[in-house]
Structure formats: structure tokens, C-alpha cells
Design a protein that fits this description.
The chain has helices at residues 3-21, 29-38, 45-57, 76-83, and strands at residues 26-28, 61-66, 69-74. The chain is α+β, with helices and mostly antiparallel strands. A hairpin with a 2-residue loop joins strand 2 and strand 3.
């Protein structure tokens, strides 16, 4: 596994776990970006949007747009991936 793949999978897990911690299991892309930075992932807003789109395609989150800002909400499958109850290729599995 390449270092880039490892980073990508970890970034996706951070997004899911961050949403799990949010009230209502949702946050806008700016908050998601701040959560990623807090965990050492300083990535562009475009990369954040790409991760959100990928996570939506996998059924792990739903996305809605409000005034050009994406708002992500965790799904049941996303919660399972965030807690390690489900394995999703492309998302790092959390440690116990």
C-alpha cells in the first residue's frame, strides 16, 4: 500500500469519525476541513469536496448544498465504518 493511499484512507476515516461526533451527525465542509487539520491533514478545500463526493458514492454520507456550501450527514453505513463494525475498501479501519 502506498503512502498516498494510506493518507487518503485515513482522511476519509477522520471525516466519518468527525461526523459521528457532531450533533445531528452532520457538518459543513468548512468544519470537516478544520477537523482534518486538527488530525494533521492539511488538505485543500477541493480535496475535502472530493472525499465527500466519494463517501457519498459509497453510501457512507449524504450531501446537500446550501449557498454553495456542502453539508455532509453520516449514514448508518458510515457510522458502521467509523466505528469499525463494517469494513469499507478505501476507508482506514479504526483501531480498537
Amino acid at each position: 500500500m502506498s503512502f498516498k493511499t494510506l493518507l487518503t484512507e485515513d482522511q476519509r476515516l477522520v471525516i466519518l469519525r468527525s461526523l459521528l461526533d457532531m450533533q445531528g451527525y452532520e457538518a459543513n465542509e468548512s468544519i470537516v476541513d478544520s477537523c482534518l487539520e486538527a488530525y494533521g491533514h492539511n488538505i485543500s478545500r477541493d480535496q475535502v469536496r472530493s472525499h465527500l463526493a466519494w463517501l457519498e458514492e459509497q453510501g457512507l454520507i449524504t450531501l446537500r448544498t446550501m449557498q454553495e456550501c456542502h453539508i455532509a450527514r453520516l449514514t448508518g453505513r458510515g457510522e458502521d465504518a467509523a466505528t469499525g463494525q463494517a469494513t469499507v475498501p478505501g476507508v482506514k479501519r479504526p483501531r480498537a
